[in-house]
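Action item from last week, closing it out:
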Amino acid sequence: MALMKRLQKSAVEITPIDITHNLESLQFESALNDEEKQLLTLRKRSHAMVVTACTQATFFANILHEARQIKKQMKSPQKMTAKILQDKEARDPLKVGIIGCGRLGSQLAHCLLTYGRVNPKDMKVSTRRPETLEYLQNKGVDCFHDNIKLVSLSHVVFICVLPSQIQVMAEEIKEHIPGHTILYSFVAAYSPQKLKQILQTNQILKPDLSWNKESEQNSWDCSENVNTALENPVTVEKTCPFGNLKSESVILTNEKFGELMIFALLNMCTSLRLNKSDCLSILNLTLFGGISEDKLQESDFIKKTQDSHGVFPKFDLVKISQINTSVQKRVSSSEHLRKAFINRYMMMFEEYLKRRAMLGPDMEES
C-alpha cells in the first residue's frame, strides 16, 4: 500500500516531457526555402502589430467604461475602482461598435470580451457577412450589416475595414455620427487629418504604430494567438504607450497616442455633463489610479480660471495629434504619472488572470 502511494505521488510530481518541443523539423520555418525565410520578418511584424493594436484598444475601451461607472458614484469616486471590477451589471455601460470583422476586427472583439469590461449585449458588429460570426453571436453580440445603425448606437466605434472600403463607409455614416462618439481607426492608409475630412468629425483616434530595422530584430513569439499573448505581462507592457519596455517590442508606439487617450477620456467626461473638477477627478482616478504625488490639473489643458465648476471645451483630437501640449510634457517628464499609467494599463490584464484563477473553467462559459 505504501509503495502504491509513493508511485501515485511520483506520477503527479513528474512533468511529462514533450520530446517534440523545439524540434527543428517541426517548426514553421523548416518548410521554407532561403528566399521565403527572408520574409519571416513580415510575419513577426504583422503578429506584433495585431497584438499591440488589440491591447491598446481594449485598454482604451476599459477606461472609458470605468469612467462612466465612476460618474454614477461621484459622491465617493475613490471607492469605486474595486467595486467596478466586481460588478457584473454596469449602471451606464460603454456601448462599443466594430465596423469590419475580418482578422483584426474579430481578434479585437475577442479581446474586448475577454479582458475588457464590455458585456456582449453592449457590443455591436457591422460586417458584410454577419452569418460568419457564429462564435460572437453565441456569446450574445449583435452582428448585422448596418453601419448607420451601429454608429448611432455606439459611444466608441472601432473601424477595421480595408482602405478600399473607407470612402464608401464614410459617405454612409458621416451624417449620422453623434457628437459624443469617438471613432478609433485602424485604417493605416488614412491619416487622422484625412479621416477628419471624409468623416466630418474631429473625435478620431488612430494608433501611431511604427517599426525600424532595430525593432524588427527584437524577439517576438508569433505562435501564440492574441488572447494568449496578453496573458504575458512582459508582452502587455511592450504595447503600453508610456511603457518602459516598448523599445523592446517589434512594433513601436509613439507616446503621443497615450496623450490622445487622455484627451479622448476628458472629452467623454465633458459629454457626460461633468464640470472641470469632476472630469479631472475621474481622469486622474481612471488613468492614474488617483495618485496623490502628482496629478494632471486644469492648467495642463487650458488656461486656469477661478471657475472650477465650469466645463472644459471639446478638444479636437485630430488637432491635438499634430501639436505639442503641456499634457504630454507633464506625463513624459513625471515618473509618478508614467508609473501610475503603466500600472493601470497592466492591471486590467492582471485582473482577468486573477478572476480566471478564482473561477476556473466556468469563467469561459459565463
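Closing note: Confidence is low (pLDDT under 50) at residues 9-15.
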